[in-house]
Design a protein that fits this description.
The complex is a heterodimer of chains A (about 325) and B (about 290). With about 325 residues, chain A is of the alpha+beta class. Chain A has 2 domains: about 220 residues, P-loop containing nucleotide triphosphate hydrolases (Rossmann fold); about 90 residues, RNA polymerase II/Efflux pump adaptor protein, barrel-sandwich hybrid domain (OB fold (Dihydrolipoamide Acetyltransferase, E2P)). Helix content of chain A is about 25%, strand content about 30%. Chain A contains 10 helices and 18 strands. Chain A has a 6-stranded mixed beta sheet, with helices on both faces. In chain A, strands 13-17-14-15-16 form a 5-stranded antiparallel beta sheet. Chain A has a 4-stranded antiparallel beta sheet with strand order 2-1-4-5, covered by helices on one side. In chain A, helix 4 crosses helix 5. The radius of gyration of chain A is 24 Å and the shape is elongated. Chain B is an all-alpha fold. Chain B has a single domain, classed as MetI-like fold (Orthogonal Bundle), CATH 1.10.3720. Chain B is about 75% helix and about 0% strand. In chain B, helix 3 crosses helix 8 and helix 10 runs antiparallel to helix 13. Chains A and B meet through helix 3 of A and helix 9 and helix 10 of B.
């Protein structure tokens, strides 16, 4: 039997006239999983989400949810629910009425729908605010209400469009762990669109990195971070240096590069000049310019644990050699 | 020091408020006060004289004509308001939610205002050749075989009056409703659809409640304009129908200023009560 909360996109394309927003995307969302669609703005991640939600028509391809083809179904008939970026709470309705909205549309009687709404509000810890208006709530509280409103439809998949981008950093961290907890407890799939690597890495069972309407890489958080397949993924995920060895590009994590004073034996090391040093608490981040050869057009970034750095401090302008284990250099598809 | 400072602050505040206060006092409060004063004056066939008597009001409130004319005024108001609302809401809804690009929204909105490039009177007169006994409307209907003889009630009738009111004042309904609708976040409509609302449910559960302030502002425009009007009723009814405005204008024409003033005061109070009742329903301060 197919898992109700498993979904599949088959060669899904979205075009607006000549412009192609999503270009033949195929992917599988496992049941009971947390998936992040990650990419820069304009990469097609939001369009993909909106097509799954049914708020955008699919130009070509099919979307399956469970064992149903939902490509042409209306949003409410799909078993999906969407949480909007700005929460889209109805400003004229109380918190309880907002949450009970979809039940009201179904014609559920007032008492029944309000008591159901209270259950959902308890789930997101907002039961005490049931009679408030959305404008009387903080951003984080509004988000919980939006979450409750989406979940009351009993969806197989919850779609979240940049849910954390409007929150301040502290609240973002808290909501992040809460989203993950909810996903585990409810046992449904979450698809979460974001442009933040941190968010995707910390939340996702599966990360889908998108660029220019196509999928660059699909994998677990560790896979995507440690084994980027393309230059784009390596650069977008951050923490990587992309270098050329003449034939192809290599990605090396900035914490896997060693800074040494003398040219190492074996000859992998390249000469570089220290340009900037930043203290980041537990680590130091050192930016270097490779001297002479054009191995890297960008400044090279090296992360050094603070204890190690304090033993042999570097100075700006100092000439050093960079060394890494061949295993850590990761060949990229060109 | 602090005392002097607060004094000059207070002075500045008074000075800043004074230009508007003076304008309002001169051109709003003073004329109304004068009308109220004159409404208690006495009148003979050929003169008016200062006095304080209740004769004007007594005559007004005892005459059955007053009540029938007020009733007629309310009838015009309610019918015109309902039609203006129905048409205005539909037009605004179409402009706000069915026209996708802002350029076209602005273009079509400006098209709505084109009739306002001519005066009220000309717009009324232009109905005459259309609605007259041998007008375009009658001729078309006859040539289509829908009627055998010209319809008499098209022009110089209550129908014509309401038609002119709706024509003249619908835009006053369109503008504020369109304005409030444009402020509705489009993602709210998607959220409603996501929650399974049909188009009609979205309209009644989301759009209508959020458009209330605009509807109320438009309604105040239309109600005050229709209740205060006299020329449209005279013109389009061919002097066969009367509203309160015509009552006043007749008194003025006969130089019975005290009587006209008394009627004006009663009309003013009536309109204020109507607006007061309307404001009980919706808080338009949110909108301003």
């Amino acid at each position: 039997m197919t898992d109700k909360s498993a979904a599949e996109l088959i060669a899904v394309t979205k075009s607006y006239g000549q412009a192609i927003a999503v270009d033949g995307v195929s992917l599988r969302i496992p049941g009971n999983s947390y998936t992040c669609l990650l990419g820069p703005s304009g990469c097609g991640k939001s369009s993909t989400l909106r097509m799954i939600a049914g708020h955008e028509s699919v130009s070509k391809g099919d979307i399956l949810l469970g064992d149903k083809n939902i490509t042409d179904l209306p949003p409410a008939g799909r078993g999906t629910a969407m949480m909007f970026q700005n929460y889209a709470l109805f400003p004229h309705l109380s918190v309880a009425d907002n949450v009970a909205f979809s039940l009201k549309m179904k014609g559920v009687e007032k008492q029944a729908r309000l008591s159901e709404a209270m259950k959902l509000l308890e789930l997101v810890d907002m039961a005490g605010f049931a009679s408030r208006l959305p404008t009387q709530l903080s951003g984080g509280q509004q988000q919980r209400v939006a979450l409750a409103r989406a979940l009351i439809t009993n969806p197989s998949i919850l779609l979240l469009d940049e849910p954390l981008s409007a929150l301040d950093p502290f609240l973002r961290l808290r909501m992040r762990s809460e989203l993950k907890r909810l996903q585990r407890e409810l046992g449904i799939s979450f698809i979460h669109v974001t442009h933040s690597q941190d968010e995707a890495l910390s939340l996702a069972d599966q990360i889908i990195v998108m660029n220019k309407g196509r999928i660059e890489q699909v994998g677990s958080a560790q896979d995507v971070f440690n084994k980027p397949q393309t230059q784009f993924v390596a650069q977008f995920m951050g923490g990587h240096n992309v270098m050329s060895d003449g034939h192809s590009h290599l990605a090396i994590r900035s914490d896997k590069i060693k800074v040494v004073r003398t040219k190492p034996e074996g000859g992998t090391g390249i000469q570089a000049v220290v340009r900037e040093i930043e203290y980041l608490g537990t680590t130091f981040s050192v930016a270097l310019n490779s001297a002479g050869n054009a191995a890297s057009p960008h400044p090279i970034s090296v992360t050094i644990p603070d204890t190690l750095f304090s033993q042999e401090p570097l100075e700006i302008g100092q000439t050093v050699f960079l060394d890494w284990r061949p295993d850590d250099a990761h060949r990229l598809a060109s | 020091m602090p005392l002097k400072r607060s004094f000059s602050n207070a002075l500045a505040a008074w000075l800043m408020a004074s230009p508007l206060a003076i304008v309002l006092a001169l051109f709003l409060v003073l004329p109304i006060a004068m009308i109220v004063v004159v409404s208690f004056w006495g009148a003979t066939e050929f003169s008016i004289y200062p006095a304080f008597k209740l004769d004007n009001y007594e005559f007004l409130l005892r005459s059955s004509v007053t009540y029938s004319v007020f009733l007629k005024t309310f009838m015009f108001t309610v019918i015109s308001w309902a039609l203006c609302l129905a048409i205005g809401f539909t037009v605004a809804y179409f402009l706000a939610f069915h026209i996708r690009t802002q350029t076209w929204q602005i273009v079509l909105f400006l098209v709505c205002t084109v009739p306002f490039l001519t005066s009220n009177i000309i717009r009324m007169i232009s109905w005459v050749p259309f609605l007259g006994r041998n007008g375009i409307a009658n001729q078309t209907l006859m040539s289509m075989g829908i009627i055998d003889e010209p319809l008499e009630w098209l022009l110089f009738s209550d129908f014509a009056v309401v038609l002119a009111f709706v024509h003249l004042y619908t835009l006053f309904m369109v503008v504020p409703i369109f304005n409030t609708m444009m402020r509705i976040d489009k993602s709210l409509l998607e959220a409603a659809r996501d929650a399974g609302a049909t188009g009609y449910q979205t309209l009644t559960n989301v759009i209508l409640p959020l458009t209330k302030p605009g509807i109320m502002i438009g309604s105040i425009f239309v109600v005050t304009l229709v209740m205060g009007d006299f020329i449209t009723v005279r013109f389009m009814s061919g002097s066969q129908s009367a509203n309160v405005g015509r009552l006043i204008s007749n008194d003025v024409a006969l130089l019975r200023y005290p009587s006209a003033a008394a009627t004006s005061v009663v009309l003013l109070i009536t309109v204020l009560i109507v607006i007061g009742i309307m404001l009980r329903f919706v808080n338009i301060r949110k909108e301003l």
